[in-house]
Amino acid sequence: MTWVSFGVTFGTVRVITHGIRGGWLPWGNMSVGGEHLHHYNFGIAALTGVGLIAVRGDERAVGHPVVATAYGCGTALICDEFALLLDLRDDYWGERGRLSVDVSLGAMSALGAYLTAKPFWHEIVKITGVHVAAAAKRNVRAVT
Questions:
Q1: CB-side neighbour CA atoms (13 Å) of 63
Q2: CB count in 10 Å sphere of residue 101
């Protein structure tokens, strides 16, 4: 759910921002008190909620698909404006704004690669744990 919601949110936000900028959507940017409200603000709010559930939620809430979806959406909203957060300059449409696209596509690719090979990664962790435990039993120490 996280990977799908990340991809859908990223794509949707890109279409909406292009529509607002191109004037072919019937609405404009959101503002509060004359200040432009960036969509990373909503991403931070979503991740704050997910964090609260992770810290204070019960087992059913922690593993719930809605929480995974909120995490993916919030992460996509933040990654999409990564360049702004990095430089504190609104470069969404500039050359430096491409960094946000690169970070978002990189995050989506890395998560997709993990999910595709999830059994492999879990087996690697399991085998590594067995080898580390066996080495510890033999009192083998790492060479530095």
A1: 2
A2: 16
